[in-house]
């Protein structure tokens, strides 16, 4: 199986009414060398300045980002290139990240290479340590910068730690 750790940045809480501004993806393997980074032009006039500020970009900058259809097509091609079989989506907050990636794939390419499901890294960790109040974020090595590739890489490092040090049975 190919696990793809994903992180997105947006300018609001939901896709369609608001826009995914950027996202990063990492093929989860020991080297973490296969990454994807996309910056997407807004699809809506709506945006929440505080949400956009998290990405580190201004509205004016985002208006010069790439066409979302091209970015999503490029992402699908990258997935096909780096995955030996069906990619599996995993993220820190899959409820948020998944809805944007899924919506953008279906809206701009007509298909989602990930299918219809995703995994949540935080929930996986809570289950492994049997404590709903624990957090995996101390397992990251790469700093959480809100650059989506950095954040996806840090989360992939945490997943690899669960495999190598906690005994998670996962086929990468």
From TrEMBL:
GO molecular-function terms, A-Z: nucleic acid binding
Stored InterPro entries: RNaseH-like_sf, RNaseH_sf, Rv2179c-like
Domain 3'-5' exoribonuclease Rv2179c-like: 3-159
Source organism superkingdom: Bacteria
Protein name: 3'-5' exoribonuclease Rv2179c-like domain-containing protein
Upper classification of the organism: Bacteria, Pseudomonadati, Bacteroidota, Sphingobacteriia, Sphingobacteriales
